[in-house]
Amino acid sequence: MIRNEFEPNEIAAQIVNGNRRTLSRAITLVESSNPDHRVQASELLNALPPAGHAIRIGLSGTPGVGKSTFIENFGLQLIAADLRVAVLAVDPSSARSGGSILGDKTRMDLLSRNPNAFIRPSPSQSHLGGVARRTREATALCEAAGFDVVLIETVGVGQSETMVAEMADLFVLLLAPAGGDELQGVKRGIMEMADIILINKADGDLKPTAIRTCADYAGALRLMRSRMQDPKDFPKALMVSAIEGSGLAEAWCEMQTLVAWRKETGVWDQIRESQNIYWFNAEMRQSLLSRLENDPNAGAKSCELQEDVRLGRIAPSVAAEQVVDSFLGPSRKISTQK
Amino acid sequence: MIRNEFEPNEIAAQIVNGNRRTLSRAITLVESSNPDHRVQASELLNALPPAGHAIRIGLSGTPGVGKSTFIENFGLQLIAADLRVAVLAVDPSSARSGGSILGDKTRMDLLSRNPNAFIRPSPSQSHLGGVARRTREATALCEAAGFDVVLIETVGVGQSETMVAEMADLFVLLLAPAGGDELQGVKRGIMEMADIILINKADGDLKPTAIRTCADYAGALRLMRSRMQDPKDFPKALMVSAIEGSGLAEAWCEMQTLVAWRKETGVWDQIRESQNIYWFNAEMRQSLLSRLENDPNAGAKSCELQEDVRLGRIAPSVAAEQVVDSFLGPSRKISTQK
Predict the structure, then answer these.
(1) Of A79, B2, B120, B232, which residue is least crowded by CB atoms under 10 Å?
(2) B329: phi > 0 → left, psi -120 to 50 → alpha, else beta; which?
(3) pTM value?
(4) CA distance A78 to chain B (A)
């Protein structure tokens, strides 16, 4: 695709027609940070049809909670119900580890080989913001490609959850059974994002603990202010066993209830619209910073000041202003006269 | 201080001479986001003498762990040893809650009334980065004012820890006694930052649990790669009882051991130097973004595009590029021709 002749409308049409190879290559294009590719990616994104009917589900859970097994079996159940499923990942650790989700893909063995599923490993970028922005665009591509459900997976480390919540229609938190005292272990901020909390591993020896944990979280959720717009009994805590497949149908049923309610009340569109504004602001910040990084004047000034900053001869904030001035040019300096 | 005649050298001299009122007002100045005040703050920071002998201790712990009690009694012990102690806070929640640390100040009753202590509530800014930058400058002011120890407190929510670790010489993590299974509750990233982990509440009924917790963390720390430059037995886990005052002297002794080692090996200076570079980069990003926010051209373009972005008629990334172009002017557009 990244060739001399770039035909955004042609590529968009191929994606809409379900060409998986084109979809894969389009995701590679939006993930690229090359400026020419960014321009092409913009043209492609603008050539896509308006957002389709996909349900974008953000899924968060710490390592070991059984996320891969959940995605594998939940995804297969959705496919059995005649739905097409895409799986994307925002994995802030992948930059270091070389992409743990690649390992996950081999663990999602049946799902990854199913023609109605599309699994995309996490892009390996060092900057979390960069990963998230590109994942959001990959989500739009999957939606245009007609997937009914896009699962956006992330690992429980705070900031990535916020970004995934900002690109998902629903946010699901997957937890392991644990003693009541450990409730505090889940950051309140992440609990507040969740529309549905699933206590996994409700099977075998862990089942009694799962029952207690589920009751604990249900209690905690009742103490938290529910979102104005949602039915009173959301957010909810439910038990599942990803490995046995139990509770998955019920969980999907609850998700559909919430989706139907939000669509009916107009909240669905409101959420997507405010997410568009969120990403507009995020993209502005990121675009400006990447131009600073690539600016030769700023680069030269920064090199010049580096040593004095390092040795504490000039305050970092003072030196920073000088670099920004050299980037914007003297006429753009903030006036200090009043 | 924020008056017609601004004499940075005079103000710096007053701070160095221990004038607490001037110190307070100087911190208010560095916390201000008014552009004129930022210029004055820069001049003041550059007028300060080179960084002094203070030990900057970052202190993190989730709510309920006994942080205020620890600061009160640890601070009083340091003062009893003829040291002067400043306490600052980076509290990302204060923007919403109106500054929980203000409540803490009343709880640090004896310390806050001691003439050798200086307690500064968390600045109430909505942007975590903003809070942290200003706290770093407040730390430099306290150091210039001759405080021997500057405690920089934060709440355990991930990103704020990273920033506090980047402005501290030592990073101390305060934890409550808890069952072994809950070890995972502390984010690995935060454990990795810690030079010393203190298990608080090692008193009364909780003592046996504290002993086990301390052993668990000591074990976990041994499994983690120790920092190349530090003595082999760091990072360490120790027990304290903030309320009874036990273990505080030992904790301070360990901190001094680490400080002495780092100063002797030159690591102390290396850390401070790389922190200067970290903040140089952070300040550049922040300065540039605040200029974008205040730019009338960008503001107009952003308003013009807002509605199309909201309704999904234009991709957020495409609209963002247009705003950045209008900020930088047409000549600064990234060339798309090759």
Answers:
(1) B232
(2) left
(3) 0.73
(4) 28
